């Protein structure tokens, strides 16, 4: 019984599994006996890109709700090793070690926030990289509200003014004001070593972002980095030390370190080189999708670490891994459009198109698009209906998100 093993249940892993199940269903008797298994550390599909938000109630979906209806097995275990020669992976289930074989492997283990060895960051820093990390931050903030006399209780330092850092910083003032209920006047400071915020967002978006941060009451400090974290205090490269009970690290991402176990050169983000069909170049029987893979999405650009690319990469990898296994046609991945929709909290959002990130919508118009993306577009069907799940997993490219009835507003 040939097995396709998918490592990971994020945007790429989930959709790879569903797409593989769809392809098996399409092929009928020609795919009899093919078994699809997902192995992932936690038995959930997390809507990771929403972790900066205050309410995460709808951001964790049990895998059984998504995979059981389409006949995909799932194992809750952390993969620690890949044996390419034996075609198996080693995984940990608590104290128990399990070996899981495969005929074809889809590595979709995602990425993780890159935490440098800054003194105190591991012990006292927070992040919104995972559902558990975001929940830990929320519990910490609630604790401060109960003990406002803690040194720096009124101050949150967000480190990293990229997309995640900006979205987190814009969300925090309103969130903190609600938590502290006028007992304290919260301060949010956004710190980045770059000379400008939103360095990846392009020149036309930057004034919109800067105005939104100001309107939201976020203080910005650029050209400096974090050098140390302690209980109730942070030190910056400028020589400044300030009271702050909360540091949220949002600076940089790296592919899951499982990529280092494959004998191929990795890019600067630790990603695997893949061909147009998502096969890892130079490694037989292994596909990669999502944040662990550097895929060509058009003639001049590689994929970015985002659900925008992770979801279609997963769908194509799932379709193609079954084709590769059974000697059937495969489909080349190409994504002809690129957009960024950045949440700016109460100030709205900014929507850009193209790799130069030209602003086409701001304010309430862009915010409506962002809310549709975050609450509808990136979700799988939640009804448990088999046909709906399989239909959603088709390796067809979505059109770009609707940006509302107006342009820049």
TrEMBL record:
Alphabetic keyword roster: FAD, Flavoprotein, Oxidoreductase
Cofactor: FAD
Coiled coil start-end: none
Domain (FAD/NAD(P)-binding): residue spans on this chain: 3-309
Biological processes annotated in GO: aerobic electron transport chain
Highest rank taxon of the organism: Bacteria
Name of the protein in question: NAD(P)/FAD-dependent oxidoreductase
């Amino acid at each position: 019984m040939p097995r396709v093993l998918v490592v990971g249940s994020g945007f790429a892993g989930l959709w790879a599994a569903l797409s593989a199940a769809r392809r098996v269903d399409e092929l009928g008797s020609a795919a009899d006996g093919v078994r699809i298994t997902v192995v992932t550390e936690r038995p959930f599909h997390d809507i990771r890109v929403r972790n900066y938000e205050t309410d995460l109630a709808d951001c964790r979906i049990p895998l059984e709700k998504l995979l059981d209806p389409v006949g995909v097995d799932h194992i809750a275990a952390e993969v620690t090793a890949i044996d390419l020669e034996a075609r198996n992976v080693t995984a940990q289930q608590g104290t128990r070690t399990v070996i899981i074989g495969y005929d074809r492997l889809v590595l979709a283990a995602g990425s993780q926030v890159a935490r440098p060895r800054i003194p105190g960051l591991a012990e006292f820093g927070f992040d919104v990289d995972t559902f558990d990390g975001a929940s830990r931050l929320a519990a910490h903030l609630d604790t401060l509200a109960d003990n406002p006399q803690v040194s720096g209780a009124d101050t949150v330092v967000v480190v990293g003014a990229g997309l995640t850092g900006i979205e987190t910083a814009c969300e925090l003032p309103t969130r903190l004001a609600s938590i502290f209920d006028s007992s304290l006047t919260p301060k949010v400071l956004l710190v980045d070593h770059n000379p400008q915020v939103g360095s990846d967002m392009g020149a036309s978006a930057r004034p919109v972002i800067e105005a939104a941060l100001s309107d939201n009451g976020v203080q910005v400090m650029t050209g400096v980095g974090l050098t140390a974290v302690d209980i109730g205090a942070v030190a910056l490269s400028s020589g400044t030390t300030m009271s702050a009970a909360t540091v949220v690290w949002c600076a940089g991402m790296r592919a899951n370190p499982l990529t280092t176990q494959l004998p191929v050169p990795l890019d600067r983000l630790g990603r695997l080189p893949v061909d147009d069909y998502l096969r890892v170049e130079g490694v037989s029987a292994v596909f990669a999708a999502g944040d662990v893979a550097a895929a060509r999405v058009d003639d001049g650009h590689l994929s970015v670490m985002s659900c925008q690319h992770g979801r279609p990469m997963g769908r194509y990898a799932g379709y193609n891994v079954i084709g590769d296994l059974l000697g059937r046609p495969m489909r080349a991945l190409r994504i002809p459009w690129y957009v960024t929709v950045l949440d700016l909290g109460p100030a709205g959002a900014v929507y850009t198109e193209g790799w130069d990130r030209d602003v086409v919508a701001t304010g309430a118009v862009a915010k409506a698009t962002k809310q549709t993306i975050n609450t509808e577009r990136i979700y799988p069907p939640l009804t448990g209906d088999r046909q709906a799940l399989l239909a959603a997993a088709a390796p067809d490219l979505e059109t770009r998100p609707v940006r509302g009835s107006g342009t820049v507003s």
